[in-house]
UniProtKB/TrEMBL annotation:
Pfam families: ECH_1 (PF00378). Its EC number is 5.3.3.8. InterPro entries: ClpP/crotonase-like_dom_sf (IPR029045), Enoyl-CoA_hydra/iso (IPR001753). SUPFAM superfamilies: ClpP/crotonase. This is Dodecenoyl-CoA isomerase. GO terms for molecular function: delta(3)-delta(2)-enoyl-CoA isomerase activity. It comes from the Eukaryota. The gene is ECI1. GO terms for biological process: fatty acid beta-oxidation. One of its GO terms (cellular component) is mitochondrion. Keywords: Isomerase. The keyword Glycosyltransferase does not apply. It comes from Dimargaris verticillata.
């Protein structure tokens, strides 16, 4: 069968090279990203976050996720060497990246999809960020430097838009637990979202954009994406309050597309036996069922046409995302660097240290 490749220029390969440029001098991470294919289906990749205890994103961890995403969604992926993958903290058993048509993003950690950005990033205490981006200017008296924050937020933007604007694979977020902030952002980048609802009602996960609760306004592109998914009225009612939503609330407002009941004794959330992963794979197969079988002569061409149509539908938001890049980087640092935010982050860190 002749594979039809769309003539689309991707920045992903260039970003992959940028993300791996520090590998040979970097220490080995103490966390991992895992890439596997679904049982009996090499077209479905499963990317699971594995930084205990709650998948909070440091620069190093987000860089690993970004490289793994690029490996899957690029039309002509450049796969790092096994040594570089190990250094990054990526474990992959995928043999053929070209045949992948769907990507499921999930978590290896119980009760958490992702807790968002690690507190050390805000405070300028993320060693991996300091190593990758040494300061060119004098450091502020407290908090992250402008150089380092813009490098981190730029990486957030890169991972988001690579998922959102890809023209190769269908993306599904399989949300097994709490998903505030950056966890919700990555889920919103996907085409579809499926969320677990434990039958043990004492441990209900929540999802949402809670940045306002610590005094950070949402970037324009993120507010627009939330409104695109949930509707303008929900965005106006909920985003100014940093609201978090239970699985059923998220389903009613369209933030997630399906809720899956998971028993407390369920197997780990990222394994193929997990009810959540099984539901995500079935969701993907439901998409496949609407198209000609893979054995059909025009199967590849139709898949490419479908994915490019998704990109066209999303083009207006994507164009604005790029047009406002510098504005977003400047505004985000202005918020993070304020005394009020830094004092809040210091307080949060002290509370976390007391718990430990």
């Amino acid at each position: 069968m002749v594979r039809v490749i769309p003539r689309v220029t991707h920045a992903g390969a260039r970003r992959l090279e940028q993300l791996t440029q520090h590998l040979h001098t970097a220490r080995k991470p103490n966390h991992a990203v895992r890439l596997v294919t679904a049982d009996n289906d090499p077209t479905v990749a499963i990317l699971s976050f594995g930084r205990a205890p709650a998948n909070a994103f440091t620069y190093e961890f987000l860089r690993a996720v970004g490289v793994a995403v690029n490996m899957v969604v690029n039309i002509d992926p450049k796969i790092p060497s096994p040594q570089d993958l190990t250094t990054l903290g990526i474990h992959s058993t995928i043999q053929d990246y070209h045949c992948i048509r769907s990507l499921i993003l999930t978590s290896d950690q119980p009760n958490f999809y992702s807790a968002g950005i690690d507190i050390t990033v805000f405070l300028g205490q993320d060693a991996s960020l300091t190593q990758a981006h040494p300061d060119a200017e004098p450091r502020p008296t407290k908090g992250v430097s402008e150089t380092q924050w813009k490098a981190f937020w730029g990486l957030v933007r890169d991972v988001y838009i690579t998922l959102y604007n890809n023209a190769k694979v269908r993306t599904v977020a399989a949300i097994n637990g709490h998903s505030p902030g950056l966890g919700c952002i990555l889920a919103l980048a996907c085409h579809d979202r499926i969320m677990a609802q434990p039958t043990d009602n004492t441990k209900q996960p929540t999802i949402g954009l809670n940045e306002v609760k610590v005094g950070l306004p949402l970037p324009i592109w993120l507010s627009e994406r939330f409104a695109q998914v949930c509707g303008q009225r929900y965005a106006e009612k909920e985003l100014p309050f940093g609201a978090m939503f239970s699985p059923q609330e998220a389903l009613r407002m369209g933030l997630v597309d399906k809720v899956v009941e998971t028993p407390p004794e369920s197997v780990p959330s990222a394994t193929s036996q997990s009810p959540l992963i099984q539901a995500a794979v079935q969701w993907v197969r439901g998409i496949y069922a609407k198209l000609p079988p893979a054995s059909a002569p025009n199967s590849d061409a139709i898949w490419v046409a479908q994915m490019l149509s998704y990109r066209q539908v999303r083009r207006e938001l994507t164009d604005r995302f790029y047009e406002r890049e510098q504005e977003d980087l400047d505004a985000s640092y202005s918020g993070i660097a304020s005394d009020a935010i830094q004092n809040t982050m210091q307080f949060v860190l002290r509370q976390l240290q007391k718990r430990n």
